[in-house]
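Researcher: I'm preparing a figure for a lab meeting and need a structural model of a single chain. I don't have an experimental structure, so a prediction will have to do for now. The sequence is pasted below. Please return the structure as C-alpha cells so I can convert it later.
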Amino acid sequence: MSPRRLRVERTGPGVLVEDLGRIGWAQLGVTRSGAADLRSLRRANRLVGNAEGAAGLEILIGGLEVVATAHLVVAVTGATCPVRIDGRPVPREAVLDLPAGCRLSLGTAATGLRAYLAVRGGVDVPPVLGSRSFDTLAGLGPSPVAPGDVLPVGPATGPLAGERPRVDVVPVAGWTGPEDVVVLRAVPGPRVDWLTAGALDHLWGPGSGWRVSADADRVGLRLTGPVLARDEAHRQAELPSEGLVRGAVQVPPGGYPVLFLADHPVTGGYPVVAAVLDADVDLAAQLRPGQRMRFARAVVPRTIRRETSPVRPEEA
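Model: Understood. Here is the structure written out cell by cell.
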C-alpha cells in the first residue's frame, strides 16, 4: 500500500499548515496562532471524521493543487473557491473521495479570503511546542507549504476510524459580498474610557464603519475610516505594555484601529478599546482589503450571584 501523502503541485498566493494553535506559552512570548478562521477548520475536520484539532491546510484566495499518493477522504470549507478533482467540479463543504493519483485543485475564491482543506488523518507534519501551526509573526512551526512538498497524512483515529463519514454536504451560508457591511460584535476594552464622546459614537454607532486596508494579514487588520481620538486627559498619556488577545482592537497614535487576528503579538503599548467576540473573529479573518465593516456592541449577560443553601445529594 502506498504511503498516505499529498504531493503539492501549486500553492497560489500562500498555503500554511494550521491547527487550533499552541496554548499555554504566552508567558514566553509565544501567541496561540492556529487557523485564522477556527470555525471553518473545525467544520472541515468534522466532515472527514477527524478530531477538531487535526492539522489542515489554510489556503489564501485559492490556487492550491495537490495530488494524492493513496486514496484519501478530504473536505474544503471556508472561502468560496471552486473545487475540482481531475478537472471535474465537486462541491465545497462536502465529504470528497480523492483516489490515488487524482488531482484536487482550488480556483480563485469569489468571496471570503481563506479556504481550508482537511484530510482524514490530518496533515502529520512534526509539531512545534505542541502545535502544527505556522506563526507568521514569530516564524514558529512548519514552514509555509511550497510546490514540490510532500505532506504526510496521519492514520485515521477516533470512533469513526473504520467508517466513512456519514455526512455528505453541510449547508453553510455564503460569505458577504464586496459592498456589504460586515458587522462584528464586540465588548468594550479596558481602555475604552480613553476615547472622546465622538470617538465612542464612531466605535459603536450603526452609521459608522471602516474599510479593511491593504495592510492586512494573519497578524491583524488595519482599518481606515473614522479616527478614534483620545480624550484630553489621555491625549499624551503613556501606557505600559499590556496583554493582547485574539480579537483585541487597539488604537495607535494615528487613531485608526487595528483588529488583531491569529498571529497577534502577546503584548502591546497602545490602548485596547474593544475586543471582538471570538466567533466573529473567524468572520473578520475572511474579510478582504477594501471590504467594509463596523463594530456592534455586544450584550453580555451579567453573572447573577445569589446566596443558596448547600446542595443536598439528591439535588446534585
